[in-house]
Amino acid sequence: xxxxxxxxxxxxxxxxxxxxxxxxxxxxxxxxxxxxxxxxxxxxxxxxxxxxxxxxxxxxxxxxxxxxxxxxxxxxxxxxxxxxxxxxxxxxxxxxxxxxxxxxxxxxxxxxxxxxxxxxxxxxxxxxxxxxxxxxxxxxxxxxxxxxxxxxxxxxxxxxxxxxxxxxxxxxxxxxxxxxxxxxxxxxxxxxxxxxxxxxxxxxxxxxxxxxxxxxxxxxxxxxxxxxxxxxxxxxxxxxxxxxxxxxxxxxxxxxxxxxxxxxxxxxxxxxxxxxxxxxxxxxxxxxxxxxxxxxxxxxxxxxxxxxxxxxxxxxxxxxxxxxxxxxxxxxxxxxxxxxxxxxxxxxxxxxxxxxxxxxxxxxxxxxxxxxxxxxxxxxxxxxxxxxxxxxxxxxxxxxxxxxxxxxxxxxxxxxxxxxxxxxxxxxx
Length: 429
What we know:
Blueprint: H1 7-10, E1 17-29, E2 33-40, E3 43-50, H2 56-61, E4 69-78, E5 86-97, H3 115-120, H4 122-125, H5 129-151, E6 155-156, E7 162-163, E8 175-178, E9 181-185, H6 190-198, E10 203-211, E11 224-233, H7 237-256, H8 259-264, E12 276-279, H9 280-289, H10 302-312, E13 316-323, E14 340-348, E15 351-358, H11 363-372, H12 381-386, E16 394-400, H13 401-409
């Protein structure tokens, strides 16, 4: 290995010899004294090379450019004015890679760049500690999702990403060349996670990319995202909402532990003790009492979602019991009021981050709902027929990983939360 320690580990080894490696974050050369701030994924450490104290070849090697990659061997010494209270006195510096062109963006963040330029050179942008902090929060969220759902008895499964029909019945799918057949990139693992439950696995969870060919260009949409899904058998919408609340609170609590990263982002995560629930009708009435002009059955605009957040004064809340025709065809209508279905959304800081429902497990009712949306049941025959083979009542939901990360980190644009985002115009890097 080219290092014995990462920088944050080495900081605790005062008086010991270590080898660290990373990028030259900043450099100050004042002749007989050279200060380097060395950066790796864990933090920044100061190196000090003083003429007469370190060998001449080390002084020469210390004359670097920003973002050169170096390996440094030396001894950790205390210095109260240095970042972290310690510095590294090098005995050897090896140059692993030199910057050969003018940097198009500044990884130190001193010189700001617009988001498009940053994304064009994302591999440089990722070096910024603040950008790295976003992805550490995202990592904490998805890992806690896996941990918490496994703890609750869910099994991870991996459905196909190549499908023969739109998972949710729309046309917003990307076609792919698949031999002699017509196929698409999956816009959701929805149908397949249901089939896994019908197959007897009973409680499944998925972390999966999905693709939607929507021609939007907003701060909250991408054409490729990561979903965190569950599906559970022998369960209804209330059971699914209970799991959604417990999992969401757990992942946000885990992300809230990243104090250093959140401080870099100048934000914090407040985790409530519970997530309250409101019916769709209650929310429509609240909005209309505040001057909105909503008809029962209308969906909420992004502006109205923000207004609901302001009216309720709660970071997290669930809206349930939606109009049946406003939701996906597989959402179970209520037995006593079929115009209302057992569907729900979870909103976080004014943005929908999760959607779910109890599913229809009765084939005749599925066909009826498909036809009500002008969809041909024949195109979903493999799916509908599965429920003719003995299917339990079941429910599930999906959380958009980039959306929950965006709100947890207070990023203004969802592109900040995807390492290499794909939108209507961007297909590289």
